[in-house]
Pre-mRNA-splicing factor SPF27 (Jaculus jaculus), 129 residues
Amino acid sequence: IQLLSMKPYELPAPSSGQKNDITAWQECVNNSMAQLEHQAVRIENLELMSQHGCNAWKVYNENLFHMIEQGKNMQLTAGSKLRKMESNWVSLVSKNYEIEWTIVQLENEIFQIKQQHGEANKENIRQDF
């Protein structure tokens, strides 16, 4: 495990060649003040989090719970609609099958009637000769 880097919190002094340079020291002081302000803001954020974080988390969880409930209800409603549509589809397919079966039976009857009429016509023709 890598240890926490303390590099961002270091306050470097001017390099050895700039030890007597007032501008370099001013930059170091400005850097120190910026880091101090950053730490003050972090402390303030932590204090706010300790005061309000628990309630914010509860509100977040409550909102999340309601979103999940809405999604669940939408899925249950969609599931019910899908089951109804599937039942309707099965019913329509069954009716189509019955219609096709009836057509096949009627075609067979027509074929038999035509055969009977064809044989009767042949006998009529034979009797005519």
In short: The chain has a mean pLDDT of 90. Residues 22-128 form the longest helix (107 residues). Residues 83 and 89 are 10 Å apart (CA to CA).
